[in-house]
Amino acid sequence: MKGASYLLPSVLKTLIFPPLLAHILLRQLRPPLLVQLICYWLSLPVLYILRTELSLYRTQSPARRAGACPPPNVKGRYPLNIDVLLDWAKSGSEEEVGRMMVLLGRQYGGTYNTRVLGEDQVITTDPRVIRHALVDDFDNFVKGQKTRSRAQEFLGDGIFNSDGEKWKFHRSLTRPFFHPTHIRPSLFTPHILSSLASMPEIGSAEHAGPSEAFDMQKAMGELSLHMAVDWLCGVKLDEPHSRGEEWEEARRGVGEAMRLAQSAVGRRMKIGNLWPLFELKADPLAKPMRTIHAFFRPLIQEAIDRKAAPEVDQGKMRLIDRLVAATDDLRKIEDQLINILLAARDTTASLLTFCVYGLALHPEVFDKVREEILSTAGMEGEINKEIIRDCPYTRRFINETLRLFPPVPLNIRRTLRPTLLPTSTGERMYMPANTALVMCTVLMQRDKAVWGEDAEDFRPERWDGGEVDEGMKGREGFAAWNLGPRMCLGQPFALSATHTFLILLVRHLTSQSDATKGGKGSRIELAPDAQPKGTRIPPAWTGEDGKGGDGRARSGRDQVWIVSDVVLAVKGGLWVRFVK
Ligand code: HEM
Fold first, then answer.
1. Ligand 1 atom having least distance to the Cα of 497
2. What does the DSSP assignment read for 514-541?
3. CA-nearest residue, atom 21 of ligand 1
4. What SS3 state is found at 125?
5. Predicted pLDDT at 312
6. Residues of the chain whose pLDDT is less than 70?
7. Atom 17 (ligand 1): residue with closest C-alpha?
8. Where does the record place Basic and acidic residues bias (predicted)?
């Protein structure tokens, strides 16, 4: 049975062992059956509490010996913090979970232990702690066997799902292909132009007044899939092909199949060790994985045939060719392609979506971006790296979007050995071995203690000051690309694609704040009226006057409902329209 190696010990420990122990103890006393049954039942919570207290003691004494303290434990109203778990489960959206984390953070500081059901789970928004885990004590903080086993059928042993030597192998194999020489704006331009042409109004001929509203998030998801598959495999998804019916079906379904596989793995992560019990009836990964294999396998075969051909056109070399040249292991090649498609698609789609959101929400920022782009890139002509380099304000705009809306809002690691966490308050916190650390990048990047009183404001100007060229790698409190040896490899891809997209989009648009300045073109507006039922932002979050509310939605600044659905996304889609 899948996952049995984790499920069985868990079931034994939590459900079988306590009544068994009670049975052995009661054997001599022979109480009436009803008393026996009550004792069996009570044995479950009693043993749970005893184990919890023991593990607490085991953490506190080494912490004291090391001159440190354990992270403060959340003190719920009910034993084992069941109320925290219930609040967590009850809260209808990620926004509410985020708010709970903010509230817990206010009470317990930047690093605390939820200890739900007696299990250590340290949550942090402290930049020092995050830096320690991702950079300074990198070898000790791993993805771990538990995470790996939950994603094994989907990600295999690929870069995302491996640690140690395997991870090093994958990283060094693919790293050269992420060099900016393999990533040119011209690679993205045809896909972006075709995406823009399919948008209402931009695609149509002369049109006055507001256009039909459409879901920009969906459009960005499709665009990112097309760009990533082309870069990985050299295949244009909308071009005719001769790979047969089965591949055609896989081509149409691969985006959705990736989404389903990701959400099945995400669900396993949330459920924990007992996930196999929830998959007894059906394997949620079976169907999506069939589509994903049917998509990639013929492409790998084509790359193998290309390898055998006498002359390979270097200009047309793609990552798939590099993988095929480096190994004969088809499973490894496929794992790596799936991992990188996963890494590239939703993250880029999320960044592009929130860039459009930021432009629509902040007309004055839009006008600055537009002015810079038009004075550097003009209204037409090819886009190249020099043009992108000469758009520093646009880069600041992208950084600010990544700060407030990081596509990967949190990251999880597990300790191999005990460690001392250096915190921003100067205190050192003891973390035992085999303990999960949840790093909430999104909360750290919105934290006033880290970014100042205006942390919740969208202000690209905060990135002024010469650091931009270094990609803000060392900026304390910014980890949208991750930090340290596992830092995102795809940064040049995502940035080049996003700059190219912004340049091409802005060429179609006029000034947002002053129509008289703009000339031809449209403005882009959010279309809350088109938002599907049940996905509009609740009024209590934004407040009557659109300011303040109850503290959620960046204290009422946001006008859409933001959720963390594997990556950061807008609930129900980002509905916008172009207005002449
Ligand atoms: C805005 C877009 C993107 C953001 C914000 C982003 C962010 C991240 C983050 C936070 C990680 C660390 C994940 C972890 O530790 O579990 C990561 C890893 C990674 N990213 Fe990205 N990413 C983006 C786009 C891309 C793209 C376009 C590609 C490929 C074309 C890519 C390839 C990778 C790879 C291969 C890794 C794994 C690195 C490793 O474990 O050594 N990313 N990315």
1. 27
2. -HHHH-SSBEEEE-GGGSPTT-SPPHHH
3. 488
4. coil
5. 62
6. 1-7, 10, 87-100, 203-210, 310-315, 466-474, 514-521, 544-550, 565
7. 488
8. 544-555
Which regions of 131-221 does DSSP assign to beta strands (E)? 141-142, 214-215
Provide the pLDDT for residue 309: 73
DSSP-H helix ranges across 441-565: 441-444, 448-451, 491-506, 515-518, 539-542, 552-556
What whole-number distance in Å separates Cα of residue 352 and Cα of residue 59?
Answer: 44
Helices 491-506 and 330-361, axial angle in degrees (round to 10): 40
Mutate to test the pocket of ligand 1, among 167, 488, 491 (most ligand atoms within 8 A of CB): 488
Q: How far is CA 137 from the centre of its chain?
A: 22
Where does 309-407 have alpha helices with state H? 319-326, 330-361, 363-377, 385-389, 392-404
What is the number of other CB atoms lying within 10 angstroms of the CB of residue 66?
Answer: 14
The predicted model scores a pTM of 0.90
Q: How many CA atoms lie within 13 A of 6 on its CB side?
A: 18
Q: Tell whether residue 488 is among the known ligand binding residues.
A: yes
- Structural tokens at position 32: 């009436």
CA 364 remoteness from chain centre = 29
- Token digits for 342? 């996963």
Are 218 and 230 within 8 A, CB to CB? no
DSSP letter for 420, please. E
Alpha-carbon span 352 to 459, nearest angstrom: 18
Whether 564 contacts 409, CB under 8 Å: yes
Q: How far is the CA of 344 from the centre of ligand 1 (A)?
A: 7
Q: Of all helices (H) and strands (E), which one includes residue 258?
A: helix 244-271
In the reported structure, the alpha carbon of residue 312 is separated from the centroid of ligand 1 by a whole-number distance in angstroms of 29
Distance 519 CA to ligand 1 centre (A): 39
Q: Give the per-residue pLDDT at 106.
A: 76
The protein residue whose alpha carbon is closest to atom 39 in ligand 1 is: 486
**Residue whose CA is at the smallest distance from ligand 1 atom 42:** 490
Going by CA atoms, what residue is nearest to atom 20 of ligand 1?
Answer: 488
Spell out which residues line ligand 1, taking CB within 6 angstroms.
159-160, 171, 340, 343-344, 347-348, 351, 407-408, 411, 480-482, 486, 488-490, 493-494
CA–CA gap between residue 336 and residue 323 (Å, rounded): 8
| 393 CA distance to ligand 1 middle (Å) | 24
H/E run at residue 564:
strand 562-565
Distance (angstroms) between ligand 1 centre and the Cα of 50 equals 41
Alpha carbon of 235 to ligand 1 centroid (Å): 22
Length of the chain: 580
Ligand 1 mean position, distance from CA 451 (Å): 24
The helix (H) or strand (E) run that includes residue 122 is strand 121-124
From the alpha carbon of 482, which atom of ligand 1 is closest?
Answer: 10
Instruction: Count Cβ atoms below 10 Å from residue 275 Cβ, excluding itself.
Output: 20
Query: Measuring CA to CA, which residue among 180, 155, 151 is closest to residue 170?
Result: 155
pLDDT at 512: 73
Which of 240, 202, 236 has the alpha carbon at shortest distance from 501? Answer: 202
